[in-house]
Amino acid sequence: MLAAGGLYCALTIAPRDELDEHTLTGIEVACFLTVACSTAALLLACLLRKTLSPWWTAPALCFLLAGTARWAHVVHTYPPP
User: Where does the sequence pass through the membrane (predicted)?
Assistant: First the structure.
């Protein structure tokens, strides 16, 4: 749930301009939260792979890819001053 909330915040928050550092920092924190929680969920799913079906890794992997893509987009589109 934390990964989904972080991804929602990362995708819906938009900076007003290139100098809006507070908003850009918030987006980066939301992306980090998404990546960290998704990585933890993937590791947990890999540890419990005998109990869980392989499909349990799909949402965590999608959140991980989307969070990483948004983070990379923000870093490349809005370079630091």
Answer: 26-48, 55-73
